[in-house]
Design goal:
Helix content of chain C: 55-70%
Number of helices of chain A: 12
Strand content of chain C: 5-15%
Structural class of chain C: alpha/beta
Number of helices of chain C: 25
Number of domains of chain A: 2
Number of strands of chain A: 17
Largest interface: A-B, 86 and 96 residues
Number of domains of chain C: 3
Strand content of chain A: 15-25%
Chains: A alpha+beta (350), B alpha+beta (484), C alpha/beta (405)
Largest sheet of chain A: 8 strands, antiparallel
CATH architecture of the largest domain in chain C: 3-Layer(aba) Sandwich
Oligomer: heterotrimer
């Protein structure tokens, strides 16, 4: 994979933008552009592409840590890890096969293993970043345990670049399981939800579960004997498609290609369904369905399309305290509002 | 500020038994788990309700009085040490489990709930709270959040930040911050992660939502003895490279083994240069398969002795020596001084070698106890405070060890926090831009700077004073502390 | 923990001992976790670590402040902290030294002094104590509720007559049974049951004609010289009978713990030191003794589920408790699970009289823990806990001896 360090140029670009009083729009491969703008929208900011800032800085499989530059494509990262029989714990969506490490961290979107293997921020150990003042800063490190200073690295996850341009990220990785099996059970939506909750209280080797189209899918991982024992407890027949979970994560299943507004609801996992024509993930905590966002006010439901990033960063505006605190934090990292200000403008308006 | 006025306001706000003003009664509050650093507080408030906490914070804010939040006072870096003229807000009376939500596998706790009490309360449902710092019997969840506490099992189960899903924070501005709760995902900036490990400098936590996990049904403990430290270090790497994440993976060196064995007779091989303790947990089949693999790896790597414990009694015996290691080492010399650096595991043999050289250079013995799984090293420097100059030597050597950790790509503190103890070493780990960023971030929460001032983040002046942002004779004058 | 005790303190044996104990404490705070008063009050000053600090300050300043006395008085001496302590701090010995220091360097208020005097002059003397108890019973409706609750129940007071010792014709072995002062008045049925049990199995029970107090009461009130005199007195009474028995036992773990401490307390006693050690060698808790006999015991027909309350003097003081559990289980009882087993019931000798409010709060907590498993009876092994719990429990409270047949 390409090994290229353009951090000096990036730092220079930010300094220039700041001096010129203009802002920058940080971009990677563009895989998640659809979550920011609709096709027709254009940005007022200078484009700051991190896509060329690529390569693995450090990787020792026995350390369970990889440090890579933000522009490194996730696919290449995954391939490298796979050679050592390891993987990213949070299974980020690749969206059309693209997607960079920086984008995965900045967006904080995790795949189907999240309740068992942790969220994106759970895996972040350290970052090198440029703040809005153009300073290159290092927080966290390459070790699992580190309590020196505020946890600024994890604060970058889900901040969509509004607090800094990510240069390098150190991620905790996990071993690939010795064996894996996906089973499907014919259950309706409600039955699936209650089954998921029942499993959550048991020590089973589950690493993903999903209800989709009158079928409950469950993934078991671990030693072969443990997977088999788990399968006898969950029941169900073996699902044939080996890439089913990737398709789910990347929204490649037919459900995600239907016309209309795709909505994502984050909910306490056992909470009642607000729409049963849905896909359920994360043991019931993440729910997908179609409809009009305004009808689901106050249920943690958001349009998963243009404007999602703005809303994701700014939705705490519904809680004025969090809105204020977020603005003050933004101010602390980027006082001149240089980095991805459009996401924040939405914040202020909301 | 009129002190008399503030005192009167507090007296009017709190019931009599919730405010300590008698100088004799204030003395025991002058320190936490780190007794070498002391400062009597001006007053101690022991509120019984959240609204009392809010009222105390309001009075302090209006009169610019510093506030030091305190949980169980078990911290090992002086995070709860009072500040001069400040009010200690003890949260020990907010110790109720507010809710156990079995459907969503979460519990809501007041900050004074003890870590172990959570697992005890949900044990009947087959659930538990995973992070288990060594002080888990006494330390409280609010303090765990402030320190981002780890434990023996954090390689597999993570730190506090990985197991807390919601917080309610009373901010110094008078605002109340609600973060997360029953659900798993937060929108906006991850303030929850930021609060974890913030050492009480961003606000006072009054509610904590934690994740509850099913209790692993089976557990196995393996002990392996090695003739060389490097072989033991290699074994750690091999176990992880083989795709296993043990629940716990601990290492002890020869001096630590001999001390522990002499103290508790755990059956450790005395001829070993290092031993590894490996705990595996999970479903029965998984543990069986993993234990067989670990045993084979250990033998292949030249372990001179491998013991496997299946039942709780035998497991407790193997753990006994490790758990008694600190008091046991304490018996080898009148005083000891414990460090808490973290290093990448692959540098272990090399760093231990360097520590050994320092030991020769300073003529002080060092016993090493190591959370091998996550790279957290606890070297114990043995000395005798009655010998003139020996304490200073131990301190200087401790500073050198932390510098080694930073140079090896690690950090000055893995789990004990910075507090007031490691402020100087922070200057080694962070540059002035980074420290200023920390300061600006704090100001976003606490513009008046009254929340636990003077902790965790050193001022630039302090760093400048100790010499070019670099510590040569790290000053850490604390010894004889039990630090696991 | 660093200490700077003045020369005047360190020059004394007790001062040196205090310094040694203070230095062994690393201030980790584990002890607070299992301290009943810390759990109730949530104040560092009401936990062992804070009390140790207050003692250190007191000895360093050589001055007793009333706030220190308040917090030391609230300690139950349950010693749960010693069980929890990873550094082996001998807290109760430090407290003993501190209480003695308070006693000789601090003037309590009049009411407090009167209460303490009354306790020392009455409770250890069974005739006086019985007369007070009878008087109290007669006047019960005029007494405040708290005091009324503490009165021994009628039947036991009236039943107090020296039970004629049943001696088997040919004794397999013999044992000296100490009856204790309070127990003879409040729960004489316990030793009556034991005598019967042992007689039926051919074991001769030897008892003292004029048994004095073991000294526990004075010791806990910080009156060490008086306590030591009481101890010597008991040793003198015991001495002639010591050789003829295999063991000396007590059915009250509160007495047992003090008796077991005689060798330490009288270590340097020229006249009684040796005798104290001889007693120490033969002294057993009744549980240890019965288990050592290797005999089998039967259960009562009408009782099945038992909640076993472990007195602090047994589990933390003597590090025992499993014996009773085993004996009851072997006899066929179901032992229900008891939450917070380490925690004190609040009786703690004279504590229930001197710290009535805390004591009753702890009792109510304990009872809810004991009764949550819905037992038929609560069984304990100390007279203090026995009478204290009986006041508020909704099921009968017995000594576990009474459950064996």
């Amino acid at each position: 994979m390409a090994d290229r360090d353009i951090s000096d140029e990036l730092q220079e670009s930010i300094a220039q933008a700041r001096d010129a009083g203009v802002s920058v729009a940080i971009a990677g491969s563009g895989s998640k552009e659809f979550l920011v703008h609709s096709d027709t929208e254009t940005t007022q900011s200078r484009l700051l592409s991190v896509a060329e800032h690529t390569g693995v800085v450090a990787y020792r499989p026995a350390e369970l840590v990889i440090t890579a530059r933000a522009g490194t494509p996730l696919r290449e990262l995954a391939a490298l890890l796979a050679r050592a029989n390891q993987m990213l714990p949070f299974e980020p969506p690749l969206f059309r096969g693209m997607g960079t490490l920086g984008g995965a961290i900045a967006s904080g979107l995790a795949g189907s293993g999240r309740p068992w293997r942790g969220s994106v921020r759970d895996a972040v150990l350290g970052v090198v970043m440029i703040n809005g003042l153009g300073q290159k800063l290092t927080f966290g490190g390459q070790v699992m345990k580190n309590v020196a200073g505020y946890d600024v690295s994890r604060l970058q996850v889900g901040a969509f670049g509004t607090l800094g341009v990510l240069l390098e990220i150190s991620i905790r990785v996990i071993p690939k399981p010795a064996s894996e099996m996906t089973l499907k059970l014919e259950l309706d939506c409600l039955e699936s939800l209650s089954k998921m909750r029942e499993w959550a209280r048991k020590p089973l080797p589950i690493t993903a579960s999903c209800y989709h189209d009158n079928m409950l899918y469950v993934r078991l991982s671990g030693a072969e004997t443990a997977v088999l024992a788990g399968a006898s407890e969950t029941g169900g027949e073996i699902a044939g498609d080996l890439n089913w979970w990737d398709k789910l994560n990347d929204h490649d299943l037919p459900f995600f290609k239907e016309p209309g507004s795709l909505l994502r609801q984050m909910s306490p996992p056992a909470q009642e369904l607000v729409n049963d024509a849905c896909v359920l993930e994360w043991s019931g905590a993440k729910r997908w369905f179609y409809g009009d966002e305004s009808e689901y006010h106050g249920t943690g439901t958001k349009l998963f399309g243009a404007g999602f990033a703005q809303v994701a960063v700014s939705s705490p505006a519904a809680d004025p305290v969090r809105g204020d605190v977020q603005r003050r934090i933004k101010q602390a990292f980027d006082p001149d509002n240089v980095l991805n200000p459009e996401l924040l403008r939405a914040n202020e308006a909301a | 500020m009129s002190r008399k006025l503030v005192r009167r306001l507090l007296q009017r706000t709190l019931p009599r038994h919730c405010l300590i003003t008698d100088p004799v009664a204030l003395k025991p509050y002058e320190t936490d788990g780190l007794t070498a650093i002391r400062q009597p507080p001006w007053l101690v408030a022991l509120p019984e309700t959240e609204s009392q906490v809010a009222a105390v914070l309001r009075i302090c804010r209006e009169h610019a009085v510093p506030v030091v939040p305190r949980g169980a006072g078990t911290g090992l870096s002086g995070g709860a040490r009072p500040v001069e003229g400040g009010v200690v807000v003890g949260l020990s009376r907010l110790n109720k489990i507010l809710e156990v939500d079995l459907d969503n596998c979460v519990a809501c706790l007041q900050p004074g709930v003890r870590n172990l009490a959570i697992s005890e309360a949900v044990a009947e449902h087959g659930l538990y709270y995973a992070p288990d710092p060594s002080s888990q019997i006494a330390c409280s969840i609010g303090g765990n959040v402030a320190e981002n506490s780890g434990g023996v099992h954090c390689l597999k189960y993570g730190l506090t930040v990985h197991n807390v899903v919601g917080l309610k924070v009373l901010m110094m501005t008078g605002e109340v911050l609600h973060l997360g709760g029953r659900g798993q995902e937060l929108d906006g900036y991850d303030l929850l992660a930021l609060m974890c490990g913030s050492e009480g400098m961003l606000g006072v936590v009054t509610e904590v939502w934690v994740k509850l996990l099913p209790v692993p049904p089976v557990k196995k403990v393996l002990l392996a003895a090695f003739a060389q430290v490097s072989a033991a270090a290699a074994a750690v790497s091999e176990i992880i490279t083989a795709g296993l994440i043990p629940a716990g993976l601990e290492m002890m060196d020869r001096l630590a083994i001999q001390a522990a064995e002499a103290y508790v007779h755990a059956g450790y091989p005395l001829d070993a240069q290092a031993i590894l303790l490996c705990e595996l947990d999970g479903v029965a089949q998984e543990v069986e398969a993993d234990a067989a693999l670990v045993e084979r790896l250990l033998r292949d790597l030249g372990a001179i002795d491998v013991q496997i414990a299946d039942d709780p009694q035998a497991q407790a015996r193997l753990w006994l020596g490790r758990k008694a290691a600190f008091p046991a080492v304490g018996r080898l010399a009148p005083d000891y001084y414990c460090m808490d650096g973290t290093i990448p595991r692959y540098r272990l043999a090399e760093v231990l070698q360097q520590i050994e050289s320092l030991s020769v250079e300073y003529k002080l013995r060092v016993a090493n106890v190591f959370h091998a799984g996550d790279g957290n090293l606890h070297p114990l420097i043995l000395y005798d405070a009655d010998i003139p100059g020996e304490l200073e030597k131990a301190e200087a050597m401790g500073g050198r060890i932390l510098e080694l950790c930073v140079a090896a790509g690690g950090t000055i503190t893995g789990e004990h926090g910075v507090g007031v103890e490691k402020l100087d070493q922070m200057c080694v780990q962070f540059n002035s831009d980074e420290l200023e960023q920390f300061e600006r971030l704090k100001a976003a929460f606490d513009p008046a700077g009254i929340a636990n001032p003077g902790k965790a983040i050193p001022t630039l002046t302090r760093c400048a004073e100790i010499g070019g942002m670099h510590v040569h004779n790290g000053k850490l004058p604390f010894r004889n502390l039990e630090r696991f | 923990m660093q200490t700077k005790l003045p020369e005047a303190i360190v020059a004394t044996t007790k001062g040196r001992r205090a310094e040694q104990i203070l230095r062994s404490c690393v201030h980790c705070g584990f002890c607070n976790a299992t301290c009943p008063t810390y759990e109730l009050l949530g104040d560092e000053l009401d936990g062992p670590r804070g009390r140790i600090y207050l003692i250190k300050e007191m000895l360093e300043a050589q001055k007793v402040e009333s706030v220190t006395v308040t917090h030391l008085d609230r300690c139950l001496t349950c010693r749960a902290c010693e069980t929890t302590c990873p550094s082996g701090v001998e807290y109760s010995q430090l407290l003993e030294i501190a209480r003695d220091y308070v006693s000789s360097n601090y003037r309590r208020d009049l009411l407090d002094r009167l209460k303490r005097l009354w306790l020392i002059r009455t409770v250890p003397y069974k005739r006086r104590f019985r007369r007070w108890a009878q008087l109290g019973r007669a006047m019960r409706w005029f007494l405040p509720k708290r005091l009324r609750e503490m009165l021994p129940v009628a039947s036991t007071v009236e039943a107090l007559q020296a039970t004629p010792p049943v001696s088997p014709s040919v004794a397999a072995s013999s044992v000296l049974l100490l009856n204790g002062c309070v127990q003879q008045v409040t729960t004489p049925q316990v030793n009556a049951a034991l005598r019967e049990l042992l007689a039926a199995r051919g074991i001769a029970v030897v008892e003292l004609a004029e048994e004095g107090c073991c000294g526990a009461l004075e010791l806990h009130l910080g009156k060490e010289p008086g306590a030591l005199a009481t101890m010597r007195n008991l040793l003198d009474t015991l001495a002639p009978r010591l050789d003829e028995v295999d063991a000396v036992i007590s059915t009250a773990s509160g007495c047992g713990i003090t008796l077991k401490d005689y060798p330490r307390l009288l270590k340097d006693d020229a006249t009684h030191g040796k005798l104290a050690r001889r007693l120490g060698d033969k002294l057993l808790d009744v549980g240890e003794y019965l288990l050592s006999l290797d005999l089998s015991w039967r259960k009562q027909d009408e009782v099945l589920a038992v909640a076993l309350h472990q007195p602090c003097t047994l589990q933390h003081g003597q590090k025992l408790g499993d014996e009773a559990r085993q004996l009851l289980q072997n006899a066929g009882y179901d032992l229900v699970a008891v939450r917070d087993e380490h925690s004190c019931c609040g009786s703690a000798g004279t504590y229930s009289l001197l710290q009535a409010k805390l004591s009753s709060q702890l009792r109510d907590r304990k009872i809810s823990c004991l009764e949550s498993g819905q037992p038929d009876v609560i069984a304990t092994s100390n007279v203090g806990c026995h009478t204290h719990l009986a006041v508020a429990a909704s099921v009968p409270v017995v000594h576990w001896i009474e459950l064996l047949r």
